[in-house]
Amino acid sequence: MPFSLASVDWIYVGILALLVFVSTWLGSLLSFRHAGRAALLSALLFAILFVYWTYYPHRIPGPRSLTIQNAATTPAPTPAPAPVAPAAPVKPSNPVKDITPPAAPAR
Question: What SS3 string covers 4-57?
């Protein structure tokens, strides 16, 4: 075998099989059991569902293209260097050291 069955994304295959089943079932119902129309409607419904599932930005994880994504060929991102702490705390340049509120004006 040119590939390993362990590398197959079985969840994605199952979802596509479910899309084919639903589109075939709906195509058969809508065509009133005519084989030619059922096949045409099934193909059309599958194309619509496949484009929706693959390209619509939903939050369900899954592959976004038909290319095989190999984790071994992509380099791991290097972690960002830790920020360097300042040697001494910086003193504020505000000369006011009293934080009491000002007196109310006399009436």
Answer: CHHHCCHHHHHHHHHHHHHHHHHHHHHCCCCHHHHHHHHHHHHHHHHHHHHHCC
Higher pLDDT, 30 or 80: 30
Specify the amino acid at residue 78: T
Measured distance CA(16)–CA(24) in Å, rounded: 12
Residues 6+ apart with CB under 8 A from 27: 37, 38, 39, 40, 41, 42, 43, 44, 45
Please tell me the predicted confidence (pLDDT) of residue 75: 66
Q: Contact, 28 vs 38, CB < 8 A?
A: yes
Question: Looking at beta carbons, which pairs linking 49-53 to residues 24 or more positions away fall under 8 Å?
Answer: 49/19, 49/22, 49/23, 50/16, 50/19, 53/15, 53/16, 53/19
Q: Which residues of 55-70 are buried (b: 16+ CB within 10 A; e: fewer)?
A: eeeeeeeeeeeeeeee
What is the value of pTM for the model shown? 0.45
Residue type at 95? P
